[in-house]
């Protein structure tokens, strides 16, 4: 198993923390190899940033990602900059309120910023995305990701952040169920 993941967004969204959580969940929780390379624009908030996470069963000799298997975009500028690097058969995941993909290809979307606002803290959009990503890709286990979220967020916010993770996970589960239902030729409401 070798998965190369690029997460993009702008400073202040917690893009690097999301990457760190995925890498740490893989390494500590799931006993795999992982690397993290982070990149920031000149501004600390509002500038472009990205996290490159490689997760593998074998040693990783080169941590930089040229063509990710999975591209997670939390901003339109991140999408615009990185979309062409995604492998032809790669998986695209976007924040549906902030990113409008072009080209009509298949992708997954989650309203993480809106969900975070509903939960009372816009700063948890990254944790919602981690939950969504975990359920959609199965790249890291749910248990490892939840445990890593709990130890990675500020003290006193663990419960709220785990709720955010679960919100993303549940939305992904409903999305996958809906796609399976549609693929089976069923139309209408999914129960």
Structure description:
The chain has a 6-stranded mixed beta sheet with strand order 2-3-1-4-5-6, sandwiched between helices. The chain is an alpha/beta fold and 191 residues long. Strand 2 and strand 3 form a beta hairpin. The chain has one domain: 3-Layer(aba) Sandwich (Pyruvate-ferredoxin Oxidoreductase, domain 3). The longest helix has 26 residues. The model has no long low-confidence stretch (mean pLDDT 91). It is globular and about 45 Å long.
Index terms:
Pyruvate-ferredoxin Oxidoreductase, domain 3, 6 strands, single chain, 191 residues, alpha/beta, 6 helices
Short description:
The protein is α/β, with parallel strands linked by helices and 191 residues long. It is built from six helices and six strands. The protein is globular and about 45 Å long.
Number of helices: 6
Structurally, the number of domains stands at: 1
Query: SSE string, helix = H, strand = E?
Result: EHEEEHEEHHHH
Name given to the CATH homologous superfamily: Pyruvate-ferredoxin oxidoreductase, PFOR, domain III
Strand order of the largest sheet: 2-3-1-4-5-6
Which radius of gyration do the C-alpha atoms yield? Answer: 16 Å
Q: How does the overall form come out from the CA principal axes?
A: globular
Output the CATH topology.
Answer: Pyruvate-ferredoxin Oxidoreductase, domain 3
Give the strand tally.
6
What is the terminal-to-terminal distance? 34 Å
Q: In this structure, how is the largest beta sheet organized?
A: 6 strands, mixed
| Range of strand content | 15-25%
Mean pLDDT: 91
Q: Approximately how much helix is present in the residues?
A: 40-55%
| Contiguous uncertain segments of 5+ residues | none
- Using the 3D structure, state the CATH architecture: 3-Layer(aba) Sandwich
Broad structural category? alpha/beta
CATH class: Alpha Beta
